[in-house]
Amino acid sequence: MNLSQEISDDLKARLVLCQELHEGFERERQALNSPENPLLFEFHKLRKKLLPALTRSLDALRRHRVNWQNLPHEERVRHPEVGALLQQNQDMTMKLILLDRENEQSLLRRGLVPACELPSVNRQRPHFVANLYRRQGTAAT
Hints:
single chain, 79% helix, 5 helices
């Protein structure tokens, strides 16, 4: 099997994993938005099962992107589906991150996240570090 085919097969498998996670996150969002108290243990089990696989697949995705970019232009032109699969995987990963963050916010609003699992306050302030450096720089002068 050549490298292009291997990358393509791996990306297709990763896309299936991401779609499975996306469906689970969508079901979790619907449950969190329902008026009755949702049974969240099912979603917790799904996360525990699939998120480690997603992390491993992200590492593989990075390697595939580098390997794909290192292939000769002629080889990449012969397999345009790989570029499309790379983009689909990247788009799906962003959807997963956004949906997971929305679900996390819903859990936080309901008070269903243990205190030790609360996200950093500075995560909601994307320019926190830059502002901190700027303040430190002006204080030193």
